[in-house]
Write a structure and sequence with these properties.
Blueprint (H helix, E strand, L loop, with lengths): L1 H15 L2 H18 L8 H12 L4 H12 L7 E8 L5 E8 L2 H13 L4 E2 L9 E10 L3 H10 L6 E5 L2 E6 L4 H10 L7 E8 L7 H15 L4 E6 L6
Antiparallel strand pairs: 1-2, 1-3, 2-8, 4-6, 4-7, 5-6
Helix pairs in contact: 2-3, 2-4, 5-8
Organism: Bacillus spongiae
Family: Belongs to the TACO1 family. YeeN subfamily.
InterPro entries: Integrase-like_N, TACO1_YebC-like_2nd/3rd_dom, TACO1_YebC_N, Transcrip_reg_TACO1-like, Transcrip_reg_TACO1-like_dom3, Transcrip_reg_TACO1_YeeN, YebC-like
Length: 239
């Protein structure tokens, strides 16, 4: 499990180093969530999830407020939620989630990012079955036993709880995201080091140094696309 968490941690560190890009992506995601339901996180669970995630990336309040106000203002800007699946070298698998107002443009750009970097697009369902949708929540200041006791007392289920470098990591079903956070908040936890809804691979693959470099170039090319929100893969990048 630790290797999968390391992949998430490396991905988060990479995003933290590209703040303007990640803020823009969160702005779009917040707008879409607010527009699809009530622009109030207390009554809009999708918006609440996005805002909890944004908090762990220190997204500025003015960006959050601007996106919500845009949704309140009845903007006619609409986005389609798309998922692409593809393959990299030596059994590597990739999932790309996008929000776009131009489906043809996004499909073309994603296909090009795969093709120019040794990968290729697959059909819908060709990759996703090898991943599990998972809520990942991390916190400092408690042990795994502490967290297990808190969740048991709150009658909240977790898939796995473990410690990694003084951080407790919780894997849970996506529909338990809020329940896990609320149980921990009620026990005194105020900050989370990670709060993500992600796709975890059921198994990892390891690439040679040269192949890994090419694969990371492909992932970077995908993540740099304006319409791409999230990229998931099954490669161990911590070797």
């Amino acid at each position: 499990m630790g290797r999968k968490w390391n992949n998430i941690k490396e991905k988060k560190a990479s995003k933290d180093a590209n703040t303007s890009r990640i803020y823009a992506k969160f702005g779009r995601e917040i707008y879409v969530a607010a527009k699809q339901g009530e622009p109030n996180p207390e009554s809009n669970q999708a918006l609440k999830v996005v805002l909890e995630r944004a908090k762990t990336y220190s997204v500025p309040k003015h960006i959050i407020d601007r996106a919500i106000e845009k949704a309140k203002g009845g903007s006619e800007e609409n986005y389609d939620e798309l998922r692409y699946e593809g393959f990299g070298p030596n059994g590597s698998m990739v999932i790309v989630d996008a929000l776009t107002n131009n489906v043809n443009r996004t499909a073309s750009e994603v296909r090009a990012a795969f093709g120019k970097n040794g990968g290729n697009m697959g059909v819908s369902g060709s990759v996703a079955y090898m991943f599990d949708a998972t809520a990942v929540i991390g916190l400092d200041g408690k042990t795994a036993d502490d967290v297990l006791e808190i969740l048991m007392e709150a009658d909240v289920d977790a898939r796995d709880i473990f410690e990694e470098e003084d951080t407790v990591i919780i894997y849970a079903e996506p529909d338990q995201f809020h329940a896990v956070q609320e149980a921990l908040k009620n026990s005194g936890v105020t900050d989370f080091t990670v709060a993500e809804l992600t796709m975890l691979p059921q198994s990892d693959v390891t690439l040679s140094a040269d192949t890994l470099a090419q694969f990371e170039k492909m992932i970077d090319a995908l993540e740099e696309l304006e319409d791409v929100q999230q990229v998931y893969h099954n490669v161990d990048i911590t070797e």
